[in-house]
Amino acid sequence: MDTRECTLLLGWLEHEAETSGSGFYSRKLEIQRAQDNGALWGLFEKGHPVAFLANGLRKDGFLEVRPDRRGQGYGRKLVQHRIDAVIANDSCCLLDIECVPPDSIPFWQRLGFELYNGSFAFKRVPRRFSLPGVAEVVQVRVRSFPDFVLQTGELVEPLDDFRPDAVVLPDGDIQLAERIVFFAGQLNRRYDLIVKLEADGKERVFARLTSDAAYAAGVRDDAHGNHYLDRISVPPLSDVPSRR
């Protein structure tokens, strides 16, 4: 959104605040900073703004559709545009937002976001891989647990339980058909996760998600610190990739 468009957007929000006392005009400075940082997107109808998204699909982001244009798909179109951009550049594997205002929760749920801890919601960004047609199929199971299971040895119900299609590649690695994205936001402790990784019933890893053992087996993190798994290294790598 350019400077002129941002000015039109702020004019809408100022009018909304004066007439109804609602909207995001109180966050004018955040909107201007988002515009300066290239993190402000909008939809326009005949030159007038009808919807905007500031700061993207993150906890500090916020979305609004003009009251007289709600229910016409503008919000959905804008959010999907940003999701498609994230998928295209593979920049982030997890979207983690706050639903503001709380009555927007049903909207986000319809877009595939899962609610946690009240008004927060997350969505795993999908990525799928083509598997070789002639390759050995392997049964893979990946589970995540709260960190206390390492101390107690008690395997409680997993936070997540993934069973993706997978095959053995010529180099011995195991390629998954789809990306596994780990999430522990419901614990309020993103990094305190234990991963248990099995292939054909044999345990490959049972360790903290951020441990050298997990990284050697193939766990990676994106630029936002979210962890994912595309391929299992077998045997685990002896030279663990840098984690910045």
Describe the model.
It is a single chain. The protein has six helices and 15 strands. The protein is an alpha+beta fold. The protein has a five-stranded antiparallel β-sheet.
**Helical residues, percent:** 10-25%
* CA-CA gap between termini: 32 Å
- Mean of all residue-level pLDDT scores: 90
Count of domain modules:
2
- Spatial extent as radius of gyration: 22 Å
Spell out the key features of this protein.
244 residues; alpha+beta; Aminopeptidase; 2 domains; 5-stranded antiparallel sheet; 4-stranded antiparallel sheet; 15 strands; 24% helix
Give a quick rundown of the structure.
24% of the residues lie in helices and 31% in strands. The chain has 244 residues and is an alpha+beta fold.
Outline the secondary-structure elements.
Layout: H1 3-20, H2 28-36, E1 40-45, E2 48-54, E3 62-65, H3 74-89, E4 94-98, H4 105-110, E5 114-116, E6 120-124, E7 136-137, E8 140-146, H5 149-152, E9 160-162, E10 166-168, E11 174-181, E12 193-199, E13 202-208, H6 212-216, E14 219-221, E15 227-232
